[in-house]
Amino acid sequence: MTQDFRSDRQESDENWTVGEILSAMSGSHYPRYIIDILNQVQQWMDDSIRADNPDQDIDPVAALFENVMEMDGEALFNSLEWVDEYADLLPNIKKPYGNEDVVALHVGPADFEDSLRMAIDYAALFNRGVSRRVWMISDTFIIGDVYRYISHIRALNRQGIAFRFLLVTPWGWTEIPLAAETASTSRIQWKNGRKGGAAPGDEDRKRDDRLTR
């Protein structure tokens, strides 16, 4: 697996063109390794939901309310060691390498505000002058906490550091724009499945437009 990821990086992610950087800043590009992390987190979440009844087809919504979801965060982070090839993964028990990309992962019982502040502090202070993109991947979105740090996120943007927030669930994921000047569109697109999903087709967009009139 590690060899495959390295090969993929050499072919597509190692050298960023100006166009790719602008695309990333505008919210229209997701590196392959980010999609792979999202797929892996989704699989881990799904496995956690089904842990108590592996042979039964559980209704995932009912399972959440029945508290059968056992989160083994250590197992998830151990399975994400390959991310060090591409980005500094937070939190981490070892000192990150100092990559341009930072991935702050918030899943399970961790405090949302602490994770958000950790991502900002790392890019602004501990990896200052190196960080160029911060990807916060979270199973939670708390508007009040985000609002308190919007000025910090905008300050990062002014320094040329893109802050991207990806909300992930076992059934899909989406990007939530945290600062208006970095959002490419006001429409949030839900990515289904474990392969990155697909943007809505023309008929979907027409239907959505009719509903908003």
Describe the protein:
By secondary structure, the protein is an alpha/beta fold. It contains nine helices and six strands.
Observed structural traits:
single chain, 213 residues, six-stranded mixed sheet, 9 helices, 14% strand, alpha/beta
Q: What level of helicity do the residues show?
A: 40-55%
Strand content: 5-15%
Beginning-to-end CA distance, first to last residue:
48 Å
Q: Please state the average pLDDT score.
A: 76
What is the CA-atom radius of gyration, in angstroms?
Answer: 18 Å
Topology record:
Layout: H1 2-13, H2 18-26, H3 32-49, H4 60-65, H5 73-79, E1 88-90, E2 101-106, H6 112-126, E3 133-138, H7 143-148, H8 150-158, E4 162-169, E5 172-176, E6 191-192, H9 202-212
Parallel strand pairs: 1-2, 2-3, 3-4
Antiparallel strand pairs: 4-5, 5-6
Summarize this, please?
By secondary structure, the protein is of the alpha/beta class. The protein has helices spanning 2-13, 18-26, 32-49, 60-65, 73-79, 112-126, 143-148, 150-158, 202-212, and strands at residues 88-90, 101-106, 133-138, 162-169, 172-176, 191-192. The chain has 9 helices and 6 strands; from the N terminus they run H-H-H-H-H-E-E-H-E-H-H-E-E-E-H.
